[in-house]
Specification:
The complex is a heterodimer of chains A (222) and B (796). Chain A is α/β, with parallel strands linked by helices and 222 residues long. Helix content of chain A is 35%, strand content 27%. Chain A has 7 helices and 10 strands. Chain B has 4 domains: 184 residues, no CATH class; 208 residues, no CATH class; 170 residues, no CATH class; 205 residues, no CATH class. In chain B, β1 and β2 form a beta hairpin. The chains are: A alpha/beta (222), B alpha+beta (796).
């Protein structure tokens, strides 16, 4: 599903390149549940952003569902990730002005899905996540765990093949964290490919594979 | 999608209520001001344009080149001769204003201030909406009257006015027609019209009017579509030269649409004029107010961008395209503009009576006219576009990742642009503050200037012309002396004097009859003239420069003259001035005194040469000085005496100080309008500043926190936050001062007597603006400076 070949990313600091990612080669097959681990500043989030097409690599090739992402134009790329990728963030990133229902509905609006169809889809996922009773509330009225549930529901509403999660439990207490991880496990079992960035060994253990990053390189020694 | 956008627009507005309210208040204030100004401007610019073929209608203007006079009136025979002899003309119409007309209805006396006589061509050329009657039956009888709807209602109530009679002098006039009130953009603001034949019914008058020596008629021509105005003017001059043997008269054609903007007429006449400069100034003012209000919106909205940025970032990640985000922010702008528009409509509606009073114009139901909606529509469009596009572009172009990562959203360019807009706003408000200060000071200078006479507690009235016109000199003397004696005997009256005219605004002038020893034969000055009796100096508190005033016991004084200082200087009278021979208006006598210069016209004009003569036949205006607190009693006494002499005329009097104030009516009107709009501009600017200050404080929360941890005091933080703004305001002062200086010196040039343009006015204007800015900013920075740093630092 995903193939990274010699991906590097750097920024110039004082005229010298400062590598964020260096020479990453990575293949992820459909149905995998991959955890990216590593210390702060090791490039975990950058790698996730490159995979999510939110950011460009400076060098290297990236194939997503055998399309050469590095050759695509901005518009085609966003078309691609709109269709196949869902994002979950540490800070949830819900739109405070929208209700739970509307937050989940937003991606569908941008995919030009008809109103009646949207209603059915949102109702479905609300039911599945058991947050029907919360649909009229605003994000600030929810607990962190509930907000993250909404965040995941929003990521999944478009039926993505790939779910990218950047420290999804980072702002949650351990019980809420466990629930989220259980949910991920379940989603993975249903066929969603998941790549998560995490600090926690315990969370990483939910996954089928662990990639360790150190100073922008994949560290195979661990 | 639109529903979703509107929903979020509304919620954003509600969530940031203070900012939203500031935005809307600022925008509606600016839009209201702009709409009112453009209503006025539109009205001024559309003057007389509603008549069919207005572009082909011209008025004859007479230039008396020798005396340097320009009149809007020409002789009556010229009109008829032109319609006969100039083939380029399609129609000719004449009007003679009759100023105020007194008439009797039943047992009551009324004065109608705006009346005129028109000839039979009038309604063919100018558009009137006849409600009852028609031009044909109006002209079918010479003693007909046409009334406007309002007047018909005033005099006859709900009864049908047609066929009823009113009595003017000794003749019954029949009401023949009623028309809709003339629109606010008509130069011919007459409430009552009568056929010219009524005026000419008296054979004496007809004889008098049918010469080329009397310039009494406003003559209008409608040219054929292809005719050249120059050719018509040439024809007019040919006829004029043949009719009036005297040289030195020229006739020109003034387009109907330009009549409203005439400024070079020697006497104001009956048509209200406005300076085109003023109209342009107000147009610019209107645009500026709107721009200021929009700048606010742009500034506040982009400042709010950091708050909105997160939302934009998320939307982009979940799939929003640039186009849909742009649409979203445009919609928000439309929402705010639309709400503001509703408030604007409400405000315009509410402010209309006040605005009518300020402008002295009867704007009919502004919300019913299509012009208003056009103006509102254009204003809304301008506001939406100005407001929407820039913020929408900025907001929709964020790179989502940068936003979510928390890096700075607004780059330097945006900051500079916002600072630029801010400076523009304050520049404008400083110009307005300085302008207001200077205008107010000039007007108060006028109010308090020593005009050279004492106008307080003096009222005057003029005996009706019909009372004395046919009297022999002796009878006339006993009439005037009798009235004066009776007035003098009343309690509450401390002095009475009789003169030809009010000295507040002297109109009478003469050219060619003044002569003195040593006059250069080619020097024929235009001289103002006034006839005054022996008590004039004492009652009106004039000052003598040398010599004496008239002495009632000195019989030769009848033909002696008193000059003002300017006359002595300009005429170059030989020394000693007193005792020199002086001839004027057919009398020859001596100069017995020189009166100190006093202002007998508005301060727009320089003091001109004045000759005071002692010819009693000229005098029928009584000036009465009352004892303090006895004005009512004195007026009642004067009214009683009036009724003894002229029982069929209403007692018509005026106070000198009111007459004086009315000289500056236009100036004070402009002053109050500028004051109003400055206040609005300053308020809007302050809203903008408030919003920006709030934003800056929020943006620098982390920096403030760190500084406080490091030991900065509240004062340190406040000066840190205020410094930038003050610097910008100072920059505005620098830019505004030369512009305001230039503009205000132009304005002051219109006054022959004016205050000097002092630097301190600009210092005060700048200082005031800085103070306002400081107060606005500190209200925000105080909060930021006082906040607990630990809390602020944790936010990140």
């Amino acid at each position: 599903m995903i193939e990274l070949k010699r991906i590097s990313k750097w920024v110039n600091v004082g005229g010298k390149p400062n590598f964020i990612l260096k020479d990453i080669n990575l293949e992820i097959r459909e149905g995998e549940f991959v955890s990216i681990m590593g210390p702060s500043g090791s490039g975990k989030s950058s790698l996730l952003n490159v995979i999510g097409m939110l950011d460009d690599a400076s060098e290297g090739e990236y194939y997503f569902l055998s399309q050469a992402v590095h050759t695509l134009k901005e518009k085609q790329r966003s078309q691609l990730y709109k269709q196949y990728i869902g994002f979950v963030f540490q800070a949830y990133h819900l739109i405070d002005e929208l209700t739970v229902y509307e937050n989940i509905e937003t991606p569908l609006i941008y995919q030009n899905i008809k109103s009646s169809e949207r209603q059915a889809m949102v109702a479905d996922i609300l039911d599945r996540f058991q947050i029907v009773g919360k649909k009229g509330l605003f994000p600030t009225q929810l607990s962190g765990g509930q907000q993250q549930l909404v965040g995941i529901a929003r990521a999944l509403i478009g039926k993505p093949k790939l779910l990218l999660a950047d420290e999804p439990t980072g702002n949650l207490n351990s019980k809420q964290g466990e629930e989220i991880m259980e949910l991920f496990k379940q989603l993975n079992n249903e066929g969603v490919t998941i790549i998560q960035v995490t600090h926690s060994e315990k969370n990483a253990a939910y996954g089928s594979r662990i990639i360790n990053l150190l100073d922008g390189r994949i560290d195979n020694n661990i | 999608m639109i529903k979703n956008h509107l929903k979020i627009a509304w919620r954003t507005l509600m969530k940031n209520r203070p900012v939203g309210i500031l935005n809307i208040i600022g925008l509606s204030a600016g839009m209201t001001a702009a709409v009112l100004i453009f209503l006025w401007v539109q009205n001024e610019m559309s003057y007389d344009g509603y008549h069919p073929d207005a572009a082909r209608i011209y008025r004859l203007t007479a230039h008396l080149t020798k005396a340097k006079w320009t009149w809007e009136t020409t002789p009556l025979p010229l009109a008829s001769a032109m319609s006969r002899e100039v083939p380029e003309l399609e129609a000719v119409a004449c009007l003679q204003p009759s100023y105020s007309t007194t008439f009797r209805l039943g047992n009551e006396l009324f004065i109608e201030k705006h009346t005129a006589y028109v000839d039979s061509g009038w309604f063919g050329m100018f558009h009137y909406d006849f409600i009852e009657g028609n031009p044909a039956n109006f002209f079918s009888h010479p003693f007909s009257v046409l009334l406007t709807q309002t007047r018909a209602k005033k005099y006859f109530g709900d009864k049908d006015p047609i066929g009823r009679t009113i009595r003017i002098d000794t003749i019954d006039y029949r009401i023949a027609a009623v028309v809709r009130d003339v629109p606010a953009n008509s130069s011919f603001r007459f409430d009552m019209l009568m056929p010219l034949d009524a005026l000419l019914a008296d054979p004496k008058t007809r004889k008098n009017e049918e010469t080329y020596n009397n310039f009494n008629y406003q003559t209008f021509l409608k040219l054929r579509p292809t005719a050249s105005p120059a050719k018509v003017a040439a024809g007019a001059n040919r006829i004029m030269a043949a009719g009036k043997k005297e040289v030195g008269n020229a006739i020109s054609l003034t387009p109907l649409r330009d009549i409203h903007f005439e400024t070079d007429l020697t006497s104001g006449g009956t048509i209200e004029h406005v300076n085109k400069k003023t109209v342009y100034i107000f147009s610019v003012l209107g645009i500026f107010l709107l721009v200021i209000a929009c700048i606010n919106y742009v500034n506040i909205t982009t400042a709010m961008a950091s708050v909105r940025a997160k939302e934009v970032g998320i939307r982009k990640i979940v799939g929003a395209g640039k186009k849909s985000l742009f649409l979203q922010f445009m919609l928000e702008s439309v929402l705010v503009s639309a709400i503001s528009l509703c408030i604007t409509v409400l405000l315009v509606w509410q402010l209309m009576p006040l605005f009518r009073e300020l402008t002295d114009k009867n704007f009919p139901m502004p919300l019913a006219s299509s012009a208003t909606w056009q103006i509102l529509g254009i204003t809304l469009l301008a506001a939406t576009v100005l407001n929407g596009i820039y913020p929408a572009l900025i907001l929709s172009s964020f790179r989502p990742l940068n936003v979510l990562k928390g890096s700075t959203i607004l780059n330097f360019k945006d900051v500079y642009l916002r600072k630029g807009l801010f400076v523009l706003q304050f520049t404008f408000s400083i110009i307005l503050i300085a302008g207001t200060l200077i205008i107010q000071r000039q007007l108060s200078y006028i109010q308090h200037i020593d005009a050279g006479y004492d106008r307080s507690q003096v009222f005057y009235f003029r005996l009706p012309f019909t009372l004395y016109a046919r009297k022999e000199d002796k009878e006339f003397h006993s009439l005037i002396a009798g009235v004066k004696q009776q007035l003098t005997n009343q309690t509450g009256i401390s002095g009475v004097t009789v003169a030809s005219q009010s000295l507040v605004d002297l109109h009478s002038s003469n050219s060619g009859s003044a002569d003195w020893d040593g006059r250069d034969k080619n020097f024929v000055p235009t001289v103002f003239q006034l006839s005054a009796d022996e008590d004039y100096l004492k009652v009106l508190h004039l000052q003598m420069q040398q010599g004496r005033w008239y002495d009632p016991l000195n019989a030769t004084d009848q033909k002696n003259f008193i000059l003002n200082e300017t006359a002595v200087g300009e005429f170059n009278i030989r020394k000693p001035v007193l005792g020199q021979r002086f001839a004027f208006q057919g009398d020859t006598g001596k100069i017995i005194g020189v009166v100190k210069d006093f202002h007998f016209a508005s301060l727009h004009q320089k003091i001109k040469p004045l000759v005071i003569l002692n010819n009693e036949r000229w005098r029928a205006a009584f000036f009465i000085r009352t004892d303090p607190g006895k004005t009512t009693a004195a007026l009642a006494a004067a009214r009683r005496i009036w009724q003894n002499y002229a029982p069929d005329k209403p007692f018509d009097y005026s106070f000198l100080d009111e007459q004086f104030d009315s000289l500056y009516k236009a100036d004070s009107k402009i002053s109050s309008l500028i004051l109003l709009f400055s206040v609005i501009a300053i308020l809007i600017s302050c809203f903008g500043l408030f919003g920006l200050a709030a934003f800056t404080a929020r943006q620098r929360v982390k920096e403030i926190g760190i500084r406080k941890v490091l030991g900065a005091t509240v004062t340190d933080i406040m000066s840190l936050l205020s410094r930038d703004f003050i610097r910008l305001v100072l920059l505005s002062v620098l830019i505004a001062t030369p512009i305001a200086w230039w503009a205000m010196s132009k304005w002051l040039q219109d006054f022959a007597y004016h205050i000097p343009l002092n630097a301190w006015v600009f210092a005060v204007a700048g200082g005031l603006d800085i103070l306002i800015a400081l107060l606005t900013v500190s209200s925000q920075s105080l909060g930021a400076a006082r906040a607990n740093p630990v809390k602020n630092l944790r936010i990140e």
